[in-house]
Amino acid sequence: MNPIDRLPIDIFHYLTSYLKLNDCMSFSLSGVSPRFTSFLTEKRKWVLSRCYSVIPLQCERFFAENQFSSTVKVIDLSHCYWFQPNLLVASSTCLKNLEELHVKDTKLSLVGVAEIFRNCHLITKLSVDVKEKSWREFLDSSTLLQDGMKKLISLQLCFEGNSFEVWHLIFRVLSWCFNCVELHLEVWYTTPSHEWQLHEEDISVSETETWISQLKWMSSLQRLTYIRTGSHRFDHFCFTELLNWFWLLIGSNNNPVKQIWIQGGPSGSLKLESREDSSLTHLCLGYKTDFNPELRKITHLGGVHSFSSLPHLPDLKFVQGYCSSSEDLEAFCQMHPQLEYLHFSCYNLFDGNITFQHHDWMLSRLKSLVYACDRPDANTISKLTCVCPNLEELHVGNLYGNNILFSQEPVADNFHQFSTLKYLKRLCYVVILLVVWELRSFAVFAHCWPI
Predict the structure, then answer these.
(1) If exposure means fewest CB atoms within 10 Å of the residue's CB, which of 13, 77, 100, 135 is most exposed?
(2) CA 186 to mean position of chain CA atoms
(3) Closest CA to 259 of 249, 245, 272, 248
(4) Which residues contact 62 (CB under 8 A, 6 or more apart)?
(5) Domain range 307-451, CATH architecture
(6) Tens digit of each residue's pLDDT (9 = 90 or more) over 115-135
(7) 278-287 burial, b for 16+ CB within 10 Å, e for fewer?
(8) Are strands 432-435 and 426-429 parallel, antiparallel or unpaired?
(9) What are the start-end ranges of the H helices in 31-131?
(10) How far apart are CA 346 and CA 384, in angstroms?
(11) CA torsion sign, 430 to 433 to 436 to 438?
(12) pTM to 2 decimals?
């Protein structure tokens, strides 16, 4: 017997915790250790997202030659943009018991997913880009696609919404997903605002209302996420109609909605009528979330327009919004020592000699801190780094600016303070991304613990 095959299973578990997935595939395909290959076949979840060293042909051969069809339940190939569509289909169709398929940001689109549905009949969770521009591209595969979409309970679609035909396609696909309880839409617009050309004949209001009226299944949605990049009148017309329909449905039943996260969408008329038995845990309604103090089970809150208006939320872990003063920030942090993610912006209102009034508060659980401001205050940075000893990710400066302003130049004392963060893995100062392990030789990181 091969000496490797005599090793205990615990050793295999230990080794694979250090090996990359492509190394595991290569070793398995080499045939050196049948026992190691058998060990890999017990792995039910394969996350290959952003595994840039994975070779497409090797991946296809690996799943085709081994007995994975009865064990693999989840495969994540998101952001594997170098895989050709036929290899993505071939790598997935041999997994007969596949339940989750994630191919976001790849060359595979809905037409290719329809081919996977032909052989994989148990898929209930899907994330994919919609690259098709109109419904005509689905004429040959609409039946397969419809049968597969009916089984989904979780769906994530990413698409470019520059045309009404695309929205018509999205509405038509959504009309099949009547078992879905989790819906995630990401839409981006590349047409500049000065090139908008929207004619009345391009928008069929009656047709849109017809497709939206077939989305009564949205009354059973528990999680709705909508993220928009860019702006276009199609978004204000199509998504607002969809959102109003969702609002109407959840207001007419007692379905326990757990997440409503609308980022970058139209926010002027978004209001949530809470119920006493509300189980809502994730809430973001555009850029100015109108928070209802009765929602006491919130764990993730976005779009906050003022930290001073928030009550004590005992389960809050994530917050994103606008803070107008250091007093509001300090009072909020004192009330919420359990925070794990604090993302706040301020429009240069922290300028000047700022002094925090209290010294007895800590955010020992905080992992991620974003301080978005054109002119970050040195005292604020120093205070936050002192009270967040376990910080893993830190961003200081303007989130969207492309230029480094003189007012954003790093302060030496802050850099010294950064070096005391033992668990810091990622530092972004203004628009310069610094990865700690790549800059170990810099004096500022001399005291950082190994990662």
Answers:
(1) 13
(2) 10
(3) 272
(4) 25, 28, 29
(5) Alpha-Beta Horseshoe (3.80)
(6) 999 989 999 999 999 998 877
(7) bebbbbbbbb
(8) antiparallel
(9) 34-40, 56-65, 85-93, 110-119
(10) 15
(11) negative
(12) 0.79
